[in-house]
Amino acid sequence: MPHFIARWFTRVRALVAGNGSGAAERPAAGPVPVAPPGNGHDFVVAIGAHGINLIPCPTPRRQPQAAPATGTFVVDTARDRLGQVVGREGLHLRLRPPAGGREWEAEPVGVRIATDSERLSAKVKAANSQGRWGK
Above 70 in pLDDT, residue 128? Predict the structure, then answer.
């Protein structure tokens, strides 16, 4: 964080002494963006009568995505586990491991649709867990 603030002050100094003649120019009123939004540093520098203020930008809200249908294979990003959607309970999804086992709940915003290779791997694991014939 200290390096980030030091970079801001460097940019503010460059804005104030921007013409290169050594004479300080007064920057435009209002917040001066120091970094483009969306790069992980969502702050702006506001230069006012009382000094320099760092103002956090409001983060854009993620659009709610449709919940996956029952039977869809998804990856729970919070637990880094692959599961099959077996139902919903309130705002949560009920997930079951493909090879069987204990179900768990996950938030719909914390899951993503599994890729083809992840689905194939899960189906192979489920088939292998059933055992071989004759045993």
Answer: yes
3-state secondary structure the chain: CHHHHHHHHHHHHHHHCCCCCCCCCCCCCEEEECCCCCCCCCEEEEEECCEEEEEECCCCCCCCCCCCCCCCEEEECCCCEEEEEEEEECCEEEEECCCCCCCEEECHHHEEECCHHHHHHHHHHHHHHCCCCCC
pLDDT tens string 6-48: 777 777 777 766 644 444 445 555 555 554 555 555 667 777 7
Determine the residue type at 128.
N
* C-alpha–C-alpha distance, residues 52 and 110, integer Å: 38
